[in-house]
Amino acid sequence: MPAEDHALIVIDIQNDFCPGGALAVAEGDTIIPRVNALMDDFATVVLTQDWHPRDHSSFASNHAGKAPFDSIVMAYGPQILWPDHCVQGSDGAAFHPALRVDPAQLILRKGFRPAIDSYSAFFENDRSTTTGLDGYLRARGVGAVTFVGLATDYCVAHSALDAARLGFRATVLMGACRGIDLGGSLARMTEEMRAAGVVLEE
Ligand code: VGL
Ligand code: ZN
């Protein structure tokens, strides 16, 4: 049983990231039974939800001549363009029906500003606009965070890297995550997490 000051952060287990969804992660739904069981072991449970307006700048459909998975340069740096996904209020944005939601004390939505994408649960992709999660966790005395969810190489990795940078003891349970793996991103982000001191466990 992890200590009282240890939070479980469940990243983006939403229909659009599961098989059949708009930005499906292979085997994304297979992690759900383990994630559900883990919720009983943590004093604090946070769920995150990717939550985009229809005109979101990370959607290829909002850029003439661009296709999903093209890369562009935004005001804050490079940005991959995605298929329309997790549109606010849509079925794709809903949590997977098998995911337990009741144990969560906080449901954190991110990516709702049209001009900025947000992979990390802590900061949007400009790396300075805060979601408030840092303050929430600190105010509750949380010092350690364990991440599970989707996708390993995007929202999980960026959240874990920010957690380590902010001084939390950060662990990723790799076996309770699945990745998108675009152009070697899974190996690259795994190495970045390791180098940053994120503890990677199965
Ligand atoms: C994610 C790409 C776009 C994720 C969210 O949850 O990893 N990836 N939006
Ligand atoms: Zn998104």
UniProtKB/TrEMBL annotation:
The keyword Glycoprotein does not apply. It comes from the Bacteria. InterPro entries: Isochorismatase-like_dom, Isochorismatase-like_sf, Isochorismatase_Nicotinamidase. The keyword Hydrolase applies. Gene3D superfamilies: Isochorismatase-like (3.40.50.850). CDD domains: nicotinamidase. It is an enzyme of class 3 (hydrolase). Belongs to the isochorismatase family. This is nicotinamidase.
